[in-house]
Amino acid sequence: MEVLESTEDGAAMLQPKMSLASLRELKFGGMETASAYGAMKAGRVLFDPVAFFTHPRTILRLLSWVFSIVVFSCIVNEGYINIGSERLLCVFNKNAHACNYGMTVGVACFLGSTCFLILDVYFPSMSNLKDRKRAVLFDLIFS
């Protein structure tokens, strides 16, 4: 929103009017501004749930969390068949290792997404640069 203000010589100029949210971002730093390993200095950033949940990284983590649940539940519910015996066989070429691999990937992705979502919440309040560096490297290696 712009406000019409007059200058000293009487000419009218349009001046931008700052909203409270934009002033808060200037004062405390928004999610997009970065300093050390993707975050502002600790204690300067207030947690904003709307900005956190609309951030692309958070949306992708939530999607990977949901897809990991889908992968794990599909393999557990429909991944094994019983053909004429009491022994269950995996539907993937009757190889139990294939089903075990799929379930392991699903569980690892679920736990990783949960841990990294929690880490993303606490990341702006980390004051130690070494801890931030470890968090970013652990995310990179896990990914």
Q: What does this molecule look like?
A:
- This protein has 143 residues and is mainly alpha-helical.
- It has a domain at 46-142.
- Helices cover 55% and strands 10% of the residues.
- It has helices at residues 20-28, 49-53, 56-78, 96-122, 129-142; strands spanning 2-6, 12-16, 80-81, 89-90.
- The strands form two sheets. The protein has a two-stranded antiparallel ribbon with strand order 1-2.
- Helix 3 runs antiparallel to helix 4.
- It starts with a strand and ends with a helix.
- 7% of the residues are buried.
- The model has no long low-confidence stretch (mean pLDDT 77).
- Belongs to the synaptogyrin family.
Task: Describe what is shown at a glance.
With 143 residues, the chain is mostly helical. The chain contains 5 helices and 4 strands. Helix 3 (56-78) runs antiparallel to helix 4 (96-122).
Chain-wise SSE layout:
Blueprint (H helix, E strand, L loop, with lengths): L1 E5 L5 E5 L3 H9 L20 H5 L2 H23 L1 E2 L7 E2 L5 H27 L6 H14 L1
Antiparallel strand pairs: 1-2, 3-4
InterPro entries: Marvel, Synaptogyrin
Subcellular location: Membrane
Main location: membrane
